[in-house]
Amino acid sequence: MSTINPEGFKKESYTQMLEEKDKILSLIYDTVGDVIFALNVNKAGEYIFSSVNQTFLNATGLKREQVIGKNVKDVIPEPSLTVVLGHYRTAIKTKSSVSWEEITPYPTGTKIGEVRIAPVFDKNEKCKMLIGSVHDITESRNYAKKLEESMEKIAQKNYELEQMGYVTSHDLSEPLNTIQSFSMLLKEEMNNKTGDEAKAFKYLDFIFSATNRMKTLLRGMLNYNIIGKELELKEVDLNLLVDSVLQDIAGTIMKENAEINVSTLPSIKIYESELKILFQNLISNAIKYKHPDRGVQIDIKVSNEKEKVKIEIIDNGIGIDEVYFEKIFHVFQRLHKQNEYEGSGIGLSICKKVIDLHDGQIWVEKNTPHGSKFCFTLSKKLV
Ligand code: ADP
What are the pocket residues of ligand 1 if the criterion is a CB atom closer than 6 Å to any ligand atom? Predict the structure, then answer.
């Protein structure tokens, strides 16, 4: 207002301009999405509503005449009233604005609001007015609550599914073993038989290999479920860890005459048994998916970064088509028939689960000129 010099205007146009401004302000006052109100503080120290905007009336479901000129005591119901009066007193005492969250049962329903109140003082430092606003956060709070409830339900369902997976894969092994043992016995009895009995001998062979495959799948499922069950974080020298993996699969390495070069690896805080399973899966795959025309060559490289360690397991095998780069990390995803390469399609999903535990990432790239490069990172900040 101080920038406007009334001297330059005719009296009527100045009044007209003020009226225009008033109109704009009251339009803003009544269309703004937040509740705005003003309270006069009378001599008795009571708070009397002197002005409320349309949003106030919409939110509370009250009529203007039920509010204006009324004491807050007659408008705001308990238990909110006691809380609100306490905040008003604090704002006046501290001479500053105060904000808080409030749940109020209005006729239109219970509202959750972020309330802010600012005191206005006269020249004698006496509080004559409080200006308040309420930002309605009912929807976002209800949404957050629903989200939290859904997350809890999902966690519970996840737990139940894990338990079910564990129990099924564990308990199904027993009847499978029985089927396998008896089909073996039958096979032995039918050995050297001819005609229809020889046919039955062949069928038993199918039963035997099918049950074998089921056993591999169940073992995979069991291993998948076990990951993360009993975690123990400790500082481990990765050189020793990889050495012990190579010893465990020494038979396969010798059989395939695989050449494995391992860079010097760091010591890092990890979940040892889980990471061992990861190395085992990745190195075994690098050997299993060898190219028929090339001797197996595997390089294990490392880059030690500030917040993470990145490891690459590079092979010269058959390679993977780019379209399957993501898919292969999902459970039961295989790119080959059982008679081409044996497997359960669980190994890489286990690796993904292990890397999730280490706050890292795992992915595969094409290696040049041949083969695949499996990369993963391990966070150095695990606690
Ligand atoms: P499995 O080896 O038991 O089938 P994995 O989950 O370990 O299951 O691997 C999923 C699929 O990814 C494999 O079936 C194979 O097609 C592909 N794969 C994994 N590792 C390699 C690799 N080093 N080279 C080529 N293909 C691979």
Answer: 281, 285-286, 289, 315, 317-318, 320, 328, 333-336, 343-349, 372
pLDDT in tens, 253-304: 999 999 999 999 999 999 999 999 999 999 999 999 999 999 999 999 999 9
- State phi, psi for 117 to the nearest 5 degrees: -130, 135
Question: Residue holding tokens 């101080």?
Answer: 2
- Supply 287's token pair: 């050997």
Residue 319 C-alpha to ligand 1 middle, in angstroms? 10
Handedness of CA 247, 250, 252, 256 (dihedral sign): positive
| 300 C-alpha to ligand 1 centroid (Å) | 18
* Strand ranges of the sheet holding 47-52, from the earlier edge strand across to the other edge: 47-52, 35-41, 127-136, 109-121, 98-106
Q: Does the pTM exceed 0.85?
A: no
Distance 328 CA to ligand 1 centre (A): 7
Nearest atom of ligand 1 to the alpha carbon of 318: 25
Nearest of 72, 115, 121, 128 to residue 96 by alpha carbon:
121
Q: Position of tokens 């291993």?
A: 223
Q: What is the Å distance from ligand 1's center to 181 Cα?
A: 30
Give the pLDDT confidence of 81-91 residue by residue, as tens digits.
898 999 999 99
Nearest CA owner, ligand 1 atom 14: 334
d(CA 120, CA 95) in angstroms, rounded, equals 8
* Integer Cα distance of 61 and 38 in angstroms: 18
Backbone φ, ψ for residue 342 (5° rounding): -75, 150
Closest to 218 measured CA to CA, from 166, 285, 288? 166
Per-residue burial over 182-208, b if 16 or more Cβ lie within 10 Å, else e, is ebeebbeebeeeeeeeeeebeebeebb
